[in-house]
């Protein structure tokens, strides 16, 4: 991966997003760090700058959709392209029966996990086209069976997201854009605290190994598109 790459990372203030951004900084020239926690973004930025890579901190709530369009316009004016895009931002509130899901929680899950990714693709598409070999990866969940009890909100968003990404991939399969999905293994995170409380964390996959795998799917030599990758 060339040091001239322009990268965008959502969810860059913590966990997978933060660590992917730091690793990308070794091979990129500029990274846009998107997240809601300004202090954490600044800490990530400091580590990236030490790798001789420039950053732009973008303290953005991705459910403020009009600001996504504004960001796309600003990136176009400054860099004219996006070579690498990884979407790590997401949320899960709790596991509960459908009739117990709070309307606001359902809307938040749909808006951040699904609609924000649609708006990002819509706004960034000209920037992907302008790159020589745009490589995109969306963090998701491979929902193999529909109707799992208590997963009515999150799995609904993931099923729709997976369809959206695969559709976009097929629509652009003859272009320079390669976009894929990635389902992380269970790692220490807020997600596992909500979905698997009490799990023995000693046997969880180490985060750095997951980052290695993610970076391999962002490599410009990747030819697959519209695939759902996982850690194994």
Task: Give the SSE layout.
Elements lengths: L4 E6 L4 H10 L3 E8 L2 H12 L4 E6 L5 H14 L5 E4 L15 H28 L4 E5 L14 H18 L6 E6 L6 H6 L11 H11 L10 E3 L2
Helix pairs in contact: 1-2, 1-7, 3-4, 4-5
Helix content: 40-55%
Low-confidence spans: pLDDT under 50, at least 5 residues?
Answer: none
How is the largest sheet built, in terms of strand order? 3-2-1-4-5-6-7
**Average pLDDT across residues?**
95
User: Quick one: overall form?
Assistant: globular
Structural class: alpha/beta
Largest sheet: 7 strands, parallel
Number of strands: 7
Helix count, per DSSP? Answer: 7
The CA-CA distance between the termini, in Å, is 23 Å
Order of helices and strands: EHEHEHEHEHEHHE
Radius of gyration: 17 Å
Strand percentage lies at 15-25%
């Amino acid at each position: 991966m060339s040091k001239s790459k322009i990268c965008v990372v959502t969810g860059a203030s913590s966990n997978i997003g933060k660590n992917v951004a730091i690793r990308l900084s070794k091979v990129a020239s500029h990274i846009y760090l998107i997240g809601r926690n300004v202090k954490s973004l600044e800490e990530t930025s400091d580590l990236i700058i030490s790798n001789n890579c420039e950053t732009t901190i973008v303290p953005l709530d991705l459910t403020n959709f009009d600001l996504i369009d504004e960001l796309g316009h600003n990136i176009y004016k400054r860099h004219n392209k996006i070579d690498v895009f990884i979407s790590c931002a997401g949320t899960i509130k709790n596991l509960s029966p459908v009739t117990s899901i709070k309307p606001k929680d359902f809307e938040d899950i749909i808006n951040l996990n699904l609609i924000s990714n649609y708006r990002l693709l819509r706004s960034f598409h000209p920037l992907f086209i302008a790159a020589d070999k745009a490589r995109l990866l969306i963090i998701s969940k491979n929902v193999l069976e529909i109707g799992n009890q208590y997963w009515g909100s999150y799995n609904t968003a993931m099923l729709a997201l997976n369809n959206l990404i695969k559709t976009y991939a097929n629509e652009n399969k003859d272009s320079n854009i390669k976009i894929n999905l990635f389902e992380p293994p269970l790692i220490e995170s807020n997600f596992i605290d909500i979905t698997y409380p009490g799990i023995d964390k000693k046997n969880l996959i180490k985060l750095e190994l997951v980052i290695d795998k993610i970076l391999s799917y962002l490599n410009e030599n990747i030819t697959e598109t519209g695939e759902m990758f996982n850690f194994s």
